[in-house]
Amino acid sequence: MGLLDILLGRTKPVAPDLDQLFALPSAAVTLQAAAGFTPTGNGAVCFATVEGAAFEQTHREVQALLDADAERAGPPVEMSQDGYGYSWLLSRRSPDQLPQLVNDLHAVNSSMEANGFGPQLLCSLAAFADDTGRMLALVYLYKRGTFYPFAPLPGTADRRDSALELQMKAALASDLRIEQDLSRWFPVWGAPGL
Q: Which InterPro entries does the annotation name (predicted)?
């Protein structure tokens, strides 16, 4: 960053730090203690839709990498598209395999980044639920290197529990790098596994 950037108020974008994903297991302990949320075993990576042979090759590499895991039951990755035109890669694990799920999310992000698809990456999420059926996702913003909680209200298509999100923001402040700009806490309606 040069002097002109400083004078004009430009800031350097935060570089993605995929290793931040490895903080999710410790955050899960805090979530359970603070509000009774436990992992569901579902996690997903969202990216702008990509077509072409290079992406197909990357998808096959991710599939082969995750297929090599003997502890996994079922398909390693399910691909879908939401109503907004974004693509999702969903990984399913048993609820007690959050560290392995985090490894899956990290591997998918790293593979896409290594193959030149980093600019298309939007976010990754891990899903949690409580005994009453409330859902909560911890969403990692790839381009910001930060997390935020997303809590859709049960039985609604497009309403969220903002009070719960703010409560979880305070509870997780020492476990995760939380996104401070609330305008960047975009809802992830239609996210698979949530």
A: PspAB-like (IPR054383)
